[in-house]
Design brief:
461 residues, alpha/beta, six-stranded antiparallel β-barrel, globular
């Protein structure tokens, strides 16, 4: 067949490493003996991608294959799906768990794309596989339609319980500040205020990012110094990061505190990039970790339903919560990796691992982020999901393992209750959002009762 390829990437990731992986992907595709049409270099922006889409249109391809070389938002994937009637597939690739930066974050790109395509009722096939492995059979299965993303039906609404009713009642009346709009192409973070209030009784105030920046700049030098003294007693390497950028980052914590107190907010959903770096000049990841440790959930990328999810899990676990991405699945090792830039609550650090460190954002190169491995123990995953336009609760469970740091920032290696391949298949099939909330302990029994109290169908990974 004539196979049209679109290799998507972003320049904020490790471009030379991505190019090496793209060459391996192209080699594997060439070995299938199909006619490969389209660019053989990464498409790093919208203009280049739309030009390549036009090229495939002119060529009259039989199928379209998105090569998810690095993480990208889902906007162009949705545009590709709408532009072509032909079958479409996405191939994402793993990367080594070497303890350094997340160089590609390809799996998260697939996750984001699957959710967006689900909202648009666009069928697709998918593959998550190392291009240097023996994948000829997997590729041919993809091309003949044997790896289509299946539809995962929702379960019934569970029975409400007394504990579940109490938690649902405790959530009603809570207030979330959405600070800035979610990034373009992050359909996972979209929300409707009326639907949210009807579901959970939660109010959302929409604030501008400038309100946060102004509050941060207005913080006194004494407040900033006190915050620095606080983190100096918790993190190694604070003197090694840019001190002006560190000061600006810590002032964001003061700004968040100011907005929260004035608005009486219980949780925050913050547009954490790019403007905190490009316009303000400091990361909000470390301040978000500090807020989370104080049991004030902070959802990055202005993910309001992520903030709601954290509120529910916090109320259930009575312990700090971490909103995380799933960035790797290893079927042979039967483990996954949960990660976020550097915003896990410090209480989740493995006390037998390396000390908590002050670090910089791996793509934007500014502090303050926290760096440590997550401690071992049972964990519960929760998401109040809007996948495919159907509000429901998604639950998962696993065991965080004591392993070396997988990726820079705050990350942990988890073994799910079911096999890793089956869990990944369910995540793509369910079109789940790319953020899940994590808390230590097994809280599923109570959360099933919460689902019943909120009238939410339940999906267990």
């Amino acid at each position: 067949m004539k196979l049209g390829i679109l290799p998507l990437g972003r320049p904020t990731f490790d471009v030379p490493f991505a190019e090496d992986n793209l060459l391996a992907m192209l080699s594997a595709l060439d070995a299938t003996r199909h006619e490969i049409v389209g660019p053989r270099k990464m498409l790093l922006d919208e203009g280049a991608t739309r030009a390549a889409m036009a090229e495939l249109k002119s060529a009259g391809v039989d199928q379209v294959l998105i090569l998810q070389v690095t993480f990208t938002d889902a906007s162009l994937t949705v545009a590709i799906g709408a532009s072509f009637d032909q079958p479409m597939s996405i191939w994402a690739i793993p990367e080594p768990r070497g303890g350094g930066r997340l160089r590609l974050n390809s799996l998260c790109g697939l996750n984001l794309a699957a959710h967006a395509l689900g909202l648009n009722d666009r069928e697709f096939g998918w593959l998550f596989a190392d291009p240097s492995g023996e994948i000829g059979e997997d590729l041919n299965a993809l091309f003949r339609g044997a790896r289509r993303a299946r539809d995962l039906p929702l379960g019934a609404v569970p029975a409400a319980t007394r504990e579940g009713e109490a938690i649902a009642k405790a959530i009603r009346g809570r207030r979330i500040a959405r600070i800035g709009e979610h990034p373009v192409g992050f359909d996972t973070c979209a929300y409707d205020p009326g639907s949210l209030k009807a579901l959970a009784g939660v109010e959302v105030d929409a604030l501008d990012l400038d309100a946060l920046f102004a509050a941060a700049r207005a913080a006194t030098s004494g407040t900033a110094s006190a915050l620095r003294a606080e983190v100096a007693g918790q993190l190694d390497g604070l003197d090694d990061v840019d001190q002006n950028e560190l000061d600006r980052s810590l002032r964001l914590k003061a700004g968040l505190d100011d907005l929260r107190c004035k608005g009486r907010y219980d949780a925050l959903a913050i547009r954490c990039w790019p403007e905190t770096f490009t316009e303000y000049g400091g990361a909000v990841c470390g301040p978000a970790a500090m807020m989370g440790a104080a049991r004030v959930p902070c959802a990055c990328e202005a993910d309001v339903y992520g903030a709601l999810t954290q509120l529910i899990l916090l109320q259930t676990a009575q312990a700090p919560v971490f909103l995380t991405d799933l960035v790797d699945m290893d079927v042979r090792d039967n483990t996954g990796v949960v990660w976020h830039c550097g915003q896990a609550p410090l209480s989740m650090r493995d006390p037998e691992g390396r000390p908590a460190e002050a670090t910089i954002h791996t793509n934007r190169k500014q502090p303050l982020l926290l760096q440590f491995t997550l401690k071992p123990g049972p964990v519960t995953f929760l998401r109040i999901s809007q996948a495919k336009g159907r509000p429901h609760m998604v639950l998962g469970h696993g065991e965080m393992l004591r392993r070396p740091m997988a990726f820079a920032g705050t990350s942990g290696v988890v073994r799910f209750e079911r096999e890793a391949g089956a869990v990944l298949d369910d995540i793509i099939a369910s079109r789940l959002e790319h953020h899940m909330a994590l808390a230590y302990g097994d809280h599923r029994a109570i959360l099933r009762g919460v689902a019943g109290a909120m009238g939410l169908p339940l999906l267990e990974l």
